[in-house]
Structures are given as C-alpha cells and as structure tokens.
Write a structure and sequence with these properties.
globular; 3-stranded antiparallel β-sheet; mainly beta
Length: 76
C-alpha cells in the first residue's frame, strides 16, 4: 500500500501492473483516462490494464493505493 499525491493537472506516466490495484480518492479528483473519480470513490485496475492516473481540476489529488501482493519469484 502507499499514498499517491498528484499536484493539480499532474499525471503519472502511463503504466500497467502485474496484480489487481485499488485506488481510493481521499481528496481532489482522479482520472484514469477513461473515467473521473471523486472523493470516496475507488478506481480498480486489472492486471495488465494500461492506465495513466491524473489529477483533474485545480487542486491536488491524494489517493490511497493498495495492490494485491505478488511473490517476487512469480514471473507472470
């Protein structure tokens, strides 16, 4: 788990994950490229699904991000 902060209009690089990811919006608004999430909403990312998280609007977006654990020895 981790916290993610994106300043207003900032975005993370486009990427994928090897496991299920859940992102809870704590403040601001978050876009995953397909939909915009408000405070209290959860964005789910499926393994292999490409996304580019971005803050929407004129305030920072703070999220709590949890990812399904994956053993380091598993290659797929």
């Amino acid at each position: 788990t981790k916290y993610m902060r994106l300043n207003a209009t900032a975005s993370a690089p486009a990427h994928t994950h090897s496991a299920l990811e859940a992102t809870l919006v704590l403040s601001g608004r978050l876009s995953d490229g397909e939909r915009t999430y408000e405070v209290g909403e959860i964005a789910f990312g499926l393994p292999g699904e490409r996304h580019k998280p971005a803050a929407v609007g004129d305030e920072a977006c703070i999220c709590f991000v949890a990812q399904d654990p994956r053993p380091f020895w598993r290659l797929t």
